[in-house]
Write a structure and sequence with these properties.
Largest sheet: 9 strands, mixed
CATH class of the largest domain: Alpha Beta
Bound molecules: flavin-adenine dinucleotide
Structural class: alpha/beta
Strand content: 25-35%
Number of helices: 10
CATH superfamily of the largest domain: FAD/NAD(P)-binding domain
Radius of gyration: 21 Å
Helix content: 25-40%
Number of strands: 18
CATH topology of the largest domain: FAD/NAD(P)-binding domain
Number of domains: 2
CATH architecture of the largest domain: 3-Layer(bba) Sandwich
Length: about 375
């Protein structure tokens, strides 16, 4: 466990994932250098004007449904502790109309409000650097992780590095730094476009409704940046795998109108008429999803040492002994939050901070294991002849 003056971590990525890690480490007495390529926090997917914190209800429990239940509880407590209702979130219920119908407790959340609140709380221990794009990570002779920009200049060195750069984590760990094999890190971009507009008058439904997409009939937030109306309604979002562009398209607005048609036909008509008269607003960004749709949280595996270990131990079949995986010492990952970053970032960051401190996995060891970033390297190695 790193101790004393070595309790310094560099964190790459200042969205929900990276800033949740800063908050967790700062509470544990760490100093953090936070690097992001953007000009401020929450400028990627976490710039979402409004998203939903909700359980993922399934007939039988799955890792994602269990994670979401835990994450929902933990995030709600964070919101209640740090962000005034009406200035970044509002409690609500959501009607599930498609699979597993029912009404569930939920909240509408603007992620940037939570990110800002965590940064304020961690301010005395966090040094942010904006427009600091990390090109690669190197291990120094003295065992530090060094973040280097595209010009080859050192940005910062620390004994612990956490990569929370969403889909940017892939290039950083594979091509540029050669720290992971691309097939061991199956991340893909998934573009999403939300349609939204200022809400005039009464909302068209009592509460948010979800089928394929979420209809938010009303969201009020006095902290929304000036480019958004403080009272809005929204429908979203499209889900286009493999697309990492962020421009708005009329086709995606029409796709949202189509999904809204089955949820609330009058709202679909309104969306289309606002689009026709040029008054419909939109927001598009890129989610990062893994092959099995679960986040990647934990220490980065050392694939070369892993193959040697497997050959020596004769592992080919049976249970994957994740705990025996050789790791890149001091290098951690928190990414692939997919469509559930609001629900999962805080929970996953807490588990990651415990891992960094060398604490045992806590009450849900099987779930912690399900998120281990080494799982794909193991699966890949076991498939080799
Ligand atoms: C349209 C849409 C709707 C959504 N709706 C919901 C919802 O209703 N509920 C929900 O829970 N989630 C929702 N999500 C998902 C949620 O927004 C994400 O899961 C979450 O924001 C991911 O946070 P993150 O920190 O991992 O990524 P990001 O917020 O994208 O942050 C990654 C950061 O890494 C930085 N970065 C990348 N590469 C580098 C590098 N090399 N050097 C330095 N910095 C780098 C980027 O600049 C960026 O700031 C939605 C997403 C979209 C796009």
């Amino acid at each position: 466990m790193p101790g004393g003056s070595h309790r310094h971590a560099l964190v790459i990525g200042a969205g929900l994932a990276g800033v949740a890690v800063c908050a967790q480490l700062a509470r544990r007495g760490w100093h953090i250098t936070l690097l992001d390529a953007a000009s401020g926090p929450a400028r990627g997917a976490s710039a979402l004007p409004v998203g939903m914190l909700s359980p993922h209800v399934t007939r039988a429990p799955t890792p994602l449904s269990r994670l979401s239940a835990l994450g929902m509880q933990a995030t709600l407590a964070e919101l209640q502790r740090l962000v005034p209702q009406g200035r970044g979130w509002q409690a609500c219920e959501v009607d599930n109309l498609g699979h597993d119908p029912g009404r569930w407790p939920a909240a509408l959340v603007r992620p940037a409000a939570l990110v800002q609140a965590w940064l304020v709380e961690a301010a005395s221990r966090t040094t942010p650097h904006w427009q600091a794009s990390v090109h690669r990570l190197e291990r120094t002779a003295s065992g530090l992780w060094r973040a280097v920009n595209a010009a080859g200049e050192m940005l910062v060195e620390a004994p612990v590095a956490v990569i929370a750069a969403a889909h940017g984590s892939h290039a950083l760990l594979t091509d540029a730094s050669g720290l992971m094999e691309p097939e061991h890190l199956p991340l893909r971009p998934v573009k999403g476009q939300m349609s939204l507009a200022e809400l005039h008058g009464a909302p068209l439904a009592m509460r948010p409704q979800r089928d394929s997409g979420v209809f938010v009939p009303a969201y009020e937030d006095s902290g929304l940046p000036p480019e958004w109306p403080a009272r809005l309604w929204a429908m979203g979002s499209t889900y286009t795998r493999g697309d990492s562009s962020t421009h708005l398209t009329p086709e995606a607005h029409e796709a949202n109108a189509g999904s809204l048609q089955t949820i609330c036909p009058p709202a679909a008509d309104r969306l289309r008429s606002l689009q026709a008269c040029g008054e419909l607003r939109g927001w598009a960004q890129v989610r990062c999803a893994s092959l099995d749709r679960l986040p990647l949280v934990g220490a980065v595996p050392d694939a070369v040492a892993l193959s040697q270990h497997m050959a020596a131990a004769g592992f080919r079949r049976g249970r994957v002994p994740l705990e025996e995986t050789p790791r890149r010492q001091g290098l951690y990952l928190l990414t692939a939050l997919g469509s559930r970053g609001i629900t999962l970032a805080h929970l996953c960051a807490g588990w990651l901070a415990a891992d960094i401190e060398g604490e045992p996995a806590g009450a849900e060891p099987d779930l912690v294991a399900a998120l281990d970033p080494a799982r794909f390297a193991w699966r890949h190695a076991r498939r080799q002849p």
